[in-house]
Design goal:
Blueprint: H1 3-35, H2 40-47, H3 51-58, H4 66-75, H5 105-116, H6 119-134
Helix pairs in contact: 2-3
Length: 141
Amino acid sequence: MSSAFAKSLSQLRDHEDEASINLHIGRRVRRRRRILGMTQAALGNALRVHFQQIQKYECAANRISAARLLGLAKALQTPVQYFYDGLLDLPVVNGNGECDALGSRESDDLLTAYYALTPSARQRLLSFIKALGDEPALIPR
């Protein structure tokens, strides 16, 4: 393998890594915003940018600077580390090339509803879900 090819391959991998990091952070911004019930417009107002800029951050069309990430953390009432949580975990990819079931709207809605419960109700729900996992699957015949 030529050194020029190896160098360009390395740069391609670095670029892919950067893109996946930017996408991860954008998804975390979207998830946190949805959990708080905040619109893109409201978040944009808090940061003094248009909602379209928030859209671009969330889909990783635009990178988020360190200063902007700090502003996002303040507006979304979370530590900066939140945006990096799970970054080093390997993503699960299905046959369609889709990734990260936790990034879905359904997952966001589920988390929002879960955290709207009282702590005791959350504990009961969690126990119930764990008990369901212990039951044998019912297969319709």
